[in-house]
From TrEMBL:
SUPFAM superfamilies: Alanine racemase C-terminal domain-like (SSF50621), PLP-binding barrel (SSF51419). Pathway: Amino-acid biosynthesis; D-alanine biosynthesis; D-alanine from L-alanine: step 1/1. Catalyzes the interconversion of L-alanine and D-alanine. May also act on other amino acids. Signal peptide: none annotated. The modification N6-(pyridoxal phosphate)lysine is found at residue 38. This is Alanine racemase. One of its GO terms (biological process) is D-alanine biosynthetic process. The active site is at residues 38, 261. The keyword Ubl conjugation does not apply. Keywords: Isomerase, Pyridoxal phosphate. Transmembrane segments: none annotated. Its cofactor is pyridoxal 5'-phosphate.
């Protein structure tokens, strides 16, 4: 490893992103596709992923915060952008000037958007969010008529869409999905009765893949863009992220000697250890100690002992790895290597959390298939 070589890196396959977006676009029943690139594109890098998604057919991009949307505009991305959640102190004016669509979930939020639009002398494009049962962001049904009326009366606001978000779309057949769809339709009908003519968007990745009746005019795939499927549909989604490092040292360990902090693992036989300069400061959860494998030398090998802040140790048996050999901590899984989903299952979480946590100062990002 040279001074410029990373101790760990995530490799992002933009061709996999393009493949996934193309597949999702084909599954969208003619609806437009908004590729969600919030959270720095789920840890994959918002700007390169956004460009790849648009190249593959996405006609919208979605971010959570206005700052994320403005970063995309600063990078020269002109695709329609939607931003939906910010703190009360945010100034919406830069977003309106940059043609960023904004979410509004209350009359107060709508008023702040309208006032910002008046200051800059430009109409704000707004998506009104109805809470249909997720009970997070979104306007409560009892307050929806007031929000719709305020939006219809605001001269500096154009209502582009009515939208909501599903709680259990990743559990096909869950009764809440139909209930939320019913409430969504009722809210949309109220908006239409108030004289508005918005589009609708409700479907996330899971609903895009399992509920074509909920595609409406626009769908919002997130995790599926990155090749991770929240439902077992058999679709050919391709994970875009590989997390890798290298061997920096190999040595023999006699039987009976122990490894790493706490001596939680003792060699049952003479064995060869490979030292990998990657640990929990680089995104390898310490709680995977004793429960994880890596891909090294064409096969899975167990991590011996506790994961440390800066390193972990791999039991290679009688094989002899060399310094510089590649170590895959997780990848697409096609060759048998561990995957982000495997990590998530062992940790009792979801693969979203695994990939989004990979943006770390010591972990370099490298892109494959970058056409810029």
């Amino acid at each position: 490893m040279t001074a410029s070589s990373p101790r760990a890196e995530v490799v992002i396959d933009l061709e996999a992103v393009r493949h996934n977006v193309s597949l999702l676009t084909a599954r969208a029943s003619g609806a437009a596709v908004m590729a969600v690139v919030k959270g720095d594109a789920y840890g994959h890098g918002a700007v390169p992923v956004a460009r790849a998604a648009v190249e593959a057919g996405a006609t919208w991009l979605g971010t959570c915060s206005l700052a994320e949307a403005l970063d995309l505009r600063a990078a020269g991305i002109t695709t329609p952008l939607f931003s939906w959640l910010d703190v009360p102190e945010v100034d919406f004016a830069p977003g309106i000037e940059a043609d960023v669509d904004l979410g509004a979930s209350s009359v107060d939020e709508l008023t702040r958007i309208a006032e910002a639009a008046e200051r800059v002398g430009k109409t704000a494009r707004v998506h009104l969010k109805i809470d249909t049962g997720l009970s997070r962001n979104g306007c409560p049904p009892a307050e929806w008529p007031a929000l719709v009326e305020a939006a219809a009366a605001a001269p500096s606001v154009e209502v582009v869409a009515v939208w909501s978000h599903l709680a259990c779309a990743d559990e096909p057949g869950h009764a809440s999905v139909d209930l939320q769809a019913k409430r969504f339709t009722e809210a949309y009908d109220l908006a239409r009765a108030a004289g508005l003519n918005p589009i609708r968007h409700l479907a996330n990745s899971a609903a895009l893949l399992t509920r074509p009746d909920l595609h409406f005019e626009l769908v919002r795939p997130g995790i599926a863009v990155y090749g991770l499927n929240p439902v077992d549909t058999g679709d050919d989604l391709r994970p875009a992220m590989t997390f890798r490092s290298t061997v920096v040292l190999a040595k023999r360990l006699p039987a009976g000697e122990s490894v790493s902090y706490g001596h939680t693992w003792t060699a049952p036989r003479d064995t060869t250890l490979a030292l990998v300069p990657t640990g929990y400061a680089d995104g390898v959860p310490r709680s995977l100690s004793g429960r994880m494998d890596v891909w090294l030398g064409g096969r899975r090998r167990p991590v011996a002992g506790r994961v440390c802040m800066d390193q972990l140790v791999v039991d290679c048996g009688d094989d002899a790895p060399s310094a510089g050999d590649e170590v895959v901590l997780f990848g697409a899984g096609g060759a048998g290597e561990p995957t982000a989903r495997e990590w998530a299952d062992k940790l009792g979480t979801i693969d979203y959390e695994i990939v989004t946590s990979m943006y770390r100062p010591r972990v370099r990002r490298r892109y494959l298939g970058d056409r810029s």
